[in-house]
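Appendix C: a fully annotated inverse folding record. The material below is reproduced so that readers can follow the format used throughout the book. The structure is listed first as tokens, followed by the designed sequence.
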């Protein structure tokens, strides 16, 4: 059986969506797209990803200034 490309798209969502995203990303390695601004847990994921990227970029800039 040939594999079929899959992407997980999250719009709004509640507590069960959080479990579904965990299963998709962590357990099944499925790429996931979050539509920020749609509300509920989707906005939570979008904000968390934004803060993670912001923190990561800040650490990279700090390391560059030390070199």
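Designed amino acids, in order:
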């Amino acid at each position: 059986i040939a594999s079929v490309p899959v992407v997980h798209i999250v719009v709004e969502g509640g507590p069960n969506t959080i479990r579904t995203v965990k299963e998709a990303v962590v357990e099944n390695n499925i790429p996931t797209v979050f539509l920020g601004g749609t509300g509920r847990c989707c906005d939570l994921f979008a904000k968390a990803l934004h803060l993670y990227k912001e923190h990561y970029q800040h650490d990279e800039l700090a390391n560059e200034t030390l070199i």
